[in-house]
Amino acid sequence: MARVVVDVMLKPEILDPQGQAVQRALPRLGFEGVTEVRQGKRFELEVAEPLDEVALARVREMAETFLANTVIEDFTVRVEEPVQRETAGGQGAGAPA
Amino acid sequence: MSGGLGRIGVVTFPGSLDDRDARRAIRAAGGEAVALWHRDRELHGVDAVVLPGGFSYGDYLRCGAIARFSPIMESVLTGARTGMPVLGICNGFQVLCESHLLPGALTRNDHLHFVCRDQRLRIENAETSWTTDYTAGQEITVPVKNIDGGYVADERTLDALEAEGRVVARYLDWNPNGSRRDIAGITNQTGNVVGLMPHAEHAVDALTGPTTDGLGVFTSALRTLVGSS
To answer: MF terms per GO, please (chain A) (predicted)?
Structure first.
């Protein structure tokens, strides 16, 4: 299995009231200095090997027709390298104290 | 296909809420209401279709994004492209935008709150399949209830909608969701497909609605059907 990550973000010109609400909450929680927050979606797809150009093209098609609404959203598709995945798993066990 | 009464189908998706009220409104307008099921591919000979309000598929992914791929939507899309009157109310409007039958999209209300109130509207286009029983400029009051009702489209699309008279209804007094240019409803180029965020089907009976102003949406469609048969 290979992991493909699709990130979906509202286009820059589309108002993101949820991101704005997060940004406004930050100072109240003691987190200063964040001037803007944009909120998006991340999809992690486990895709059967081989992950060739044909398979990636299908993922892009999936992102364009379904995962994102390209009227209001942009998306990126990237393959997560297996090495990175193991590292990420290790970090998930708990941050160093 | 129609015998006497106009037959208007109402699609029920998992999570639809207002399908019963839509059917009731159709009957109140003098039509025959036909319940349609999202997994069915058949439209069972109906002359028009309503996609009702609610939270189809729990609004997962985006409102209307999953309902758009329901088996019945293939038949609805085919019908819509060949002139069948199709009305999407609230969640149904979202489904029509996700289906690209209507331009633009509906996004989270700018104030982030669910809104539920009686809303004054101005009918801007009284020539669509769903608005002929109104007059252009007529003001009506029907409930609006949504959290993802903010209509957005790029400036070029908005300008085109205005220029072609495709804004069907506009919010008056207060814009309840941040919709661009106070847009409450739009239509396609041929006027048979209409998306409306406010709930006309909840304003057909003085006992339960603020007015009976919404009835005209359904009588318009029935009149359109009689005229075309």
So the answer is: ATP binding; phosphoribosylformylglycinamidine synthase activity
